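Sync notes, pocket subgroup
Present: LS, DG
LS reminded everyone that the earlier model was apo-only. Rerun requested with 4AD included. Inputs:
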Amino acid sequence: SVIAITDVLAGKYPVNEEITVHGWIRTRRDSKAGISFLAIHDGSCFDTIQAIAPNELNNYQTEILKLTAGASVKVTGILVESPGDGQSFEIQATAVEVLGFVEDPDTYPMAAKRHSIEFLREHAHLRPRTNIGGAVTRVRNCLAQAVHRFMHSKGYYWISTPLITGSDCEGAGEMFRVSTLDMENLPRTEKGDIDYSEDFFGKETFLTVSGQLNVETYCSALSKVYTFGPTFRAENSNTSRHLAEFWMVEPEIAFADLGDAATLAEEMLKYVFSALLEERADDMAFFQQRVDKTVIDRLNAVINSDFVRMDYTDAIEILENCGKTFENPVSWGVDLNSEHERYLAEEHVGGPVVLQNYPKDIKSFYMRLNDDGKTVAAMDILAPGIGEIVGGSQREERLDVLDARMKEMDLDPADYSWYRDLRRYGTVPHSGFGLGFERLVAYATGMQNVRDVIPFPRTPKNAAY
Ligand code: 4AD
Ligand code: MG
């Protein structure tokens, strides 16, 4: 099987023996003495391996001297310890087979130079070949694997919840419709409405905004569960924190209150950041150097801190009295904007903060009503630099209170009959949260925009690829 460059650089292969690696040229440098130095990457790690190609090779003039960034090669040679610093091993090439040249190197978009992040975004199919694109990809993978490992170690079962749904979890009217109806010739009911009984599923369906309602059903049977998959929101917000398609980790815990959910979220963040610093030191050193000078310190601070927990009511008081003028003024009852969230996390606390017990009128129907009758047991975790990274709550497990709340919000109980059943048959207190995975990756790398931490970002007016 093909040897990964990361294993070669880690010393897993014997020196002074023949080895073959495959990859793409990052740079080629030629010495006057008739030797070319090829830096080769295969994406398995941040570093390249250097292959030294002497002019005795039969294709030296015809091919090796024509290698440019992005060309693909198969290199065979003797693995030796590298005399230069910064590199552990290199290959004294005995054969360099060119698998694919780069057509017209002058117009190759990923030519070896620094590109703007916006330029890379417009070339999403070539972006993973760059240093930054590769590093983001490996970090994203590392965090996803760490999430699964963490949940598994805590005894949670991973549940696959559907992407196509008939229910609106968040009730924010941000759903993409899924339909096979002929748009030119929509079937109509007698009243003139679109007749969804003619549609594929025989009813109106959407892409899910959250797996929560579905995963709650499994929580009410297996106690500790989570879902981790893509979710979709047709919110027309062109910000650095919003995607129309993003991934979410959603644990759901039976016999647990809001504090238990906040604790699990805190432990999860610490676990995945520790795993990241341990497993991807190479990529994190790059982010620290090139993207955000404080990123590693920041992650270490999170790992070593106790998250501050603060009531919404207290946060409003802090914001009202902080002497700062916000674009959107605050008072009890308003939803917080990212400027408020960032003030609290960055300036007031200087670290992640768990904000809890929000006014019920700005939150979803399923959140548990507190005894004050005004607030619900909801929490958001706000992180410096990014704002809300986690949103969660204790769920309303009392059928009568849930029904009253749904009525208040004009939701039809018939649409949620299966959800109500969980309260009718052996109801239990339970809690959960959603961790926005792209916000997590952005936070962990210092990348400023969630569009740059998902392979193919989906945003308003943009579904390229
Ligand atoms: O706060 P949200 O809307 O919560 C829910 O969907 C709950 N049903 C989760 C649950 O309790 N199981 O979303 C959760 C998180 C946010 O905190 C944010 O990190 C992320 O999902 N998020 C987005 N990330 C990228 N683009 C968007 N448009 C996002 N909307 C939410
Ligand atoms: Mg939220």
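DG: The chain has a mean pLDDT of 96.
LS: Residues 169-170, 210, 212, 233, 235, 242-243, 246, 248, 250, 388-393, 432-434, 436, 438-439, 450 surround 4AD (ligand 1) (CB under 6 Å).
Action: DG to write up.
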